[in-house]
Amino acid sequence: MNLTPKQESFSQLVVKYGDYSKAYRESYNSENMKPETVWRKAKELVDNGKVTARIVELQTELKDKNIADTKALLRFWTNSMNNTVLEMKDRLRASEMLAKHLGMFTEKIQINSVEDKMKELYRRADQVIEEYNRKMQLEQELKQ
């Protein structure tokens, strides 16, 4: 993309400010121009395909820089977990997030057939019923 230095400056400032007129004023000599003229000239620049392409390219680069990758998150959680200046609740939360990411809190069940799936569902249902019955029994004992 062959942009003039002023067009490049304009493109970068559009991304920085999100304001075409402000970007135009800082990139071009617009001292004696009316606001309407500045806006029209800025719009003409934006309508230039090369300038628009550069603005889109810069915005994409900026978005990519702002997205934390997995390594950055792991580093952040690990540093937070080990940071003795932070409150314990924050350190524990960081360790929890790290453990969740590493799959330490997931129950892994491999189901090979519908029959196995049904057995597992019945087993879980039995566990829920047992827990419910224990709670009901405790409530009955507390009432007596």
Account of the 3D structure:
The chain is mainly α. It folds into three domains: 5-66; 70-101, no CATH class; 110-144. Helices cover 76% and strands 0% of the residues. It has seven helices and no strands. The chain has helices spanning 5-17, 20-27, 35-47, 49-66, 70-82, 88-101, 114-143. Helix 1 (5-17) crosses helix 4 (49-66), helix 2 crosses helix 3 (35-47) and helix 5 (70-82) packs antiparallel against helix 6 (88-101). The relative contact order is 0.07. The mean pLDDT is 88.
**What is the alpha-carbon Rg in Å?**
30 Å
Averaging pLDDT over every residue, what do you get? 88
Structural class: mainly alpha
Tell me the fraction of residues in β-strands, as a range: under 5%
SSE order in H/E notation? HHHHHHH
Helicity, as a percent range: over 70%
Separation, N- and C-terminal Cα atoms: 84 Å
Main β-sheet: number of strands, strand sense, barrel status?
none
Q: Helical element count?
A: 7
The global form is elongated
Number of structural domains: 3
Task: Please mark out the parts with pLDDT under 50 across 5 or more consecutive residues, or reply none.
Answer: none
Count the E strands.
0
Task: Give the helices and strands, then pairings.
Elements (H helix, E strand, L loop, with lengths): L4 H13 L2 H8 L7 H13 L1 H18 L3 H13 L5 H14 L12 H30 L1
